Amino acid sequence: MSSTSESPAVEQTAELVECAWRAPGRVNLIGEHTDYNEGFCLPMAIPQGCTATVSPLAEPVLEIISVQREAPVELALDELAPGALAEEDQWAGYAAGVAWALRERGHQVPGLSITVDGDVPSGAGLSSSAALECSVAGALNDHLGLGLEPSELVAVARQAENDFVGAPTGGMDQLASIFGERGRVLLCDMRTLAVEPVPFDLEAAGLTLLVIDTKAPHQLTDGPYGERREACAQAARLLGVPALRDLSLEELSDAMDRLSDETLRKRARHVITENDRTLACADLLRTGQLRQIGPLLTASHASMRDDFEITVPEVDLAVEVLLAFGAFGARMTGGGFGGCVIGLMEPAQARAASLAVVAAFAGRDYPEPVSFTVTAAVGAHRLD
Ligand code: GLA
What we know:
Number of domains: 2
Oligomer: single chain
Bound molecules: alpha-D-galactopyranose
Helix content: 40-55%
Distance between the termini: 29 Å
Largest sheet: 6 strands, mixed
Number of helices: 11
């Protein structure tokens, strides 16, 4: 084979500096729409995730390639700013936003090629976006030798999502993706950002966590998520507390008396009761009582359906069917308005339950749902 004397050396350099990270999506066990109320949530990383591979480019451009999409996106570094991407290239904003956030924090970002390869279903409420951001954040941190701590990677990923993409989300997903641990859910205090891993060994308990992707589309850059967030902030203001997190279950009835607006009452009641359920769930799990969390999961769903009003008929139906087929508890997981439902059940019941959901959906002419089981998986890490 003929080659010039330089080419092998060039290839070797490129190989040496190429850097790959894998970061997971998440399932939130309980504690929904509590994060931006500075409350508690209990997410876990899942086996599905995103791998980001970063290599240097000689030109001052950011090239973003997705294995799942045809056209790469290219952006000149001096144009890297929120709003710079065309409508059809928005997906790349979660990666470009990380480079932008690093630059906003004073780090030098040279020309780079970033290839992402993900298997978290997108738009399903399982945080494909956090998996993308966190894998890119980890890979850029290593590639550029920035030495950022995991908590800083969380902050960078969140800044990309909030300020570059413009999704007003609350930070749980990035925390789960970076700090995930095998066999554990993470009790996250969203005021202090402290994370306590709590044992959640489904196999040892003889249980499975079934996920039903209802295929009802879920979108967080849209209005309803932001509206819920604004309603909660307004309720906290009217009640004279920094955030709804500051109200305990004992203070609920007084808070209800003081809010005259029925919608605000419902939104606040969801958050106050959900924080309580989340802490109760973590207490049960600390002592290995996995089956006993079922009623809390189901109560969380009812609260999202009736008080926070973020469920849709497809997810309500999936929850009903899972409960009818023996789930200890079931609920929608994630931001809502569609997406996934989880059911805690015995493995022997999972197949019949998912077939029953498919049949129930067919009966109503809903799109065919997809089901799979998940375990609590490892968080973001470098691939060697
Ligand atoms: C989305 C957001 C999170 C959180 C959940 C609801 O996943 O990204 O920050 O608010 O919705 O719990």
